[in-house]
Request: fold
Amino acid sequence: MSCARSGALLVLLIAAWSMANHARGQATDSAIAIDAGQSSARFVVHTRISMRAEGSMPQVSGELLGTPAGGWQVLVYVDGRGLLFDGPRWMERITRSDAFLAVDRYPGIHFHSGKFADAALRDGGALNGDLTLRGKTLPVSFQLLPSTCARPGRDCDIQVQGTISRHAFGMNAYRTLVKDDVEFQIRVRLQAEAPPS
Reply:
């Protein structure tokens, strides 16, 4: 066999080995869907008249990607059109309007986290990622709260909270009435594992 043919065969074998290992690595990653019926997102707006205005968005979906050994990423999708408001009606109109969340024009609120360690699901820790709000995507830093059970997402909620600047996402109206900080709280449950076949 010539040197050229031997070299080509070696390259093909290395490529096949790399593809097989890549496929094995992908196969070990899991994608666990969020249980939309048991998950929700809340937000709190602070006014300059010492009043909290709270709302919830119960239409939450997404998935937890990764493995305990390799780390996780969480992808959360919220449909803002399902917004329910706990405060006065005039605050609900402001919050839903184009001047604020603009949920009719930009219904999708998305959070894609960076990778975090399995221990953070139990112990809590920083959760960095990208938040898409009003059609604008910006890096944010949220916080994973410590778990209250041994199997976070299964036996208790995975809880995420954080504060964003509404001005950074283009919500510049009502400055004399509404403060800049908006608090977000996300509670996630995962779908039950399929029984082994």
Notes: The mean pLDDT is 83.
